[in-house]
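Bug #77: duplicate submission created two jobs. Keeping one. Sequence:
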Amino acid sequence: MRALLARAMNDESGSTATEYAVIAAVMAIVVAAGARSVGAEIFELYGFVSTNIAEALQGGEAEP
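Kept job's structure:
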């Protein structure tokens, strides 16, 4: 049993794939967090534009 455990601890054949999976998971978390932040800003921008367009349509011509 000790020999099997020692051999498993020293086997590095699958470690590269595991490392890439961890890197991909961390990158996915960073991208998701960034998208959430940017999404909130875009939502706010669309609200601002929508409000200004609605006010411009109700008030007629815009002031220079």
